[in-house]
Amino acid sequence: MSKVVIQFLDGTSKRGDIPFFNPAKQTVPFETASEDGKSLVQTTLHIEEIKKILFLKKDAAEESAIRKETIAQTQFAGTVAYKLIVEMNDGEVLTGTTLKYSPQEKSFFLTPLNPGDPSERIYINSRCVTKVDQKRLLGRMLVDAKLISGNQLQNALNVQAENRKKLIGQILVEQELISRKQLDESLDVQKEDRSLLGEILVRAQYLTREQLDRALLIQKENRKKRLGQILVELKYLTPDDICLALASQLGCAWIDLSSLTIPEDVLGLLPCDVVQKYEVVPVERKFGELLIVASAQPRNEEMRRAVAEGTTMRTEFVIAYDGHIAAALENYYGFS
Fold first, then answer.
1. Residue of 285, 289, 290 lying closest to 267 (CA atoms)
2. In what side-by-side order are the strands of the sheet with 314-319?
3. Where are the domains of the chain?
4. Measured CA angle at 166 (ends 163, 171), to 5 deg
5. What's the rounded Cα separation, in Å, for the pair 288 and 217?
6. Can you tell me the distance from the alpha carbon of 157 to that of 139, in angstroms, rounded to the nearest whole number?
7. Arch. (CATH architecture) of 257-333
8. Phi, psi (5° rounding) for residue 270?
9. What is the 3-state secondary structure (H, E, C) of 24-87?
10. Which of the four pLDDT bands, split at 50, 70 and 90, describes residue 187?
11. How far is residue 176 from each of residues 22, 123, 141, 181, 208, measured CA to CA in Å?
């Protein structure tokens, strides 16, 4: 039995359970609670009416929404065959990985790239897809280069599944399937303390050099726009991709502000003038004396001093996508 959220072509959604699922079948058995919540209602859904199915993690609820993964540490990046950026026909953009993808198939599965995503995997109806950008990831590159076999890659992925803290490259080296030199050449990543955002994204294969050059050209014409915002507007990347890259760049934790509901008592822990001027959002109070503050520029010293002066609590800063911060400032404070 899988707990799911089903989103339909008409824009509605339902939460419930699927006893079993076969994408080759035309129908899907579905169970959901009755309106009074006292019984289960069993129905049969037609697969053609479904936009996507979110298969939820068993432990989707977490104590904190703060993420500490970076591009190098995320459990999915650089492991399975392909990274996909999927643009739906309603404008929604999904990012994840998959073992195989073909535009001729009626549907496909996506594993969310964001480790904080409540979905374990997502079934997507290809009819609802406008565009798919696919990139080979490390595991696929090593197989294609005949440095390892497909079975060896799968065995390494199984080991990684048991130890999520280990990177796939590290496992392959430990198993003596590839050398450290071969891994470094495949990754083509030189770790620098102060790498630029665009370079980090290119090296991690989130972005092509041509895409970066186009975004930088647009930024040159509009200095007020940040590079991350431009990349998202061009639909080259998602906000989660930007946060992962910035976390790598700055060594900070990050947060998906769009999926968070902030309590009113937390919102009042910083003066409104500080929140508005420096575009920061208090998001969580921990241990009674630590305030977590989201910012698109967490290393800004002037902002950090202003926040420290505006509260008696200790503060910790996390990265958030600036578009999500702007939305939070408008939704919670009325600032636009």
1. 285
2. 281-286, 290-295, 314-319
3. 2-56, 257-333
4. 100
5. 46
6. 9
7. 2-Layer Sandwich (3.30)
8. -125, 145
9. CCCEEEEEEECCCCCCEEEEEEEHHHEEEEEEECCCCCCCCCCECCCCCCCCCCCCCCEEEEEE
10. low
11. 38, 35, 17, 12, 31
Q: Which residue has the tokens 């479904």?
A: 50
Question: What is the C-alpha separation between 255 and 246, in angstroms, rounded?
Answer: 11
Q: How crowded is residue 184: how many other Cβ atoms within 10 Å of its Cβ?
A: 14
Distance, in Å, from the CA atom of 249 to the CA atom of 332, rounded to the nearest integer, reads: 29
Residues 6+ apart with CB under 8 A from 271: 310
As a whole number of angstroms, the distance between CA 320 and CA 284 comes to 13
* Range of lowest pLDDT (20-24, 25-29, 118-122, 132-136): 132-136
SS3 letters for 227-273?
HHHHHHHCCCCCHHHHHHHHHHHHCCCECCHHHCCCCHHHHCCCCHH
C-alpha distances (whole Å) from 14 to each of 44, 118, 125 are 13, 16, 16
pTM greater than 0.85 (yes/no) = no
How many angstroms separate the CA atoms of 171 and 154, rounded?
11
| Number of continuous H segments (helices) and E segments (strands) in the chain | 12, 13
**Farthest-apart Cα atoms in the chain, separation:** 62
CA 162 – CA 136 distance, rounded (Å)? 24
Residues 295-322 have pLDDT tens digits of 988 888 999 999 999 999 999 999 999 8
Confirm or reject CATH 2.30.30.100 for domain 2-56, answering yes or no.
Answer: yes
Question: Who contacts 149 (Cβ-Cβ below 8 Å, separation ≥6)?
Answer: 143
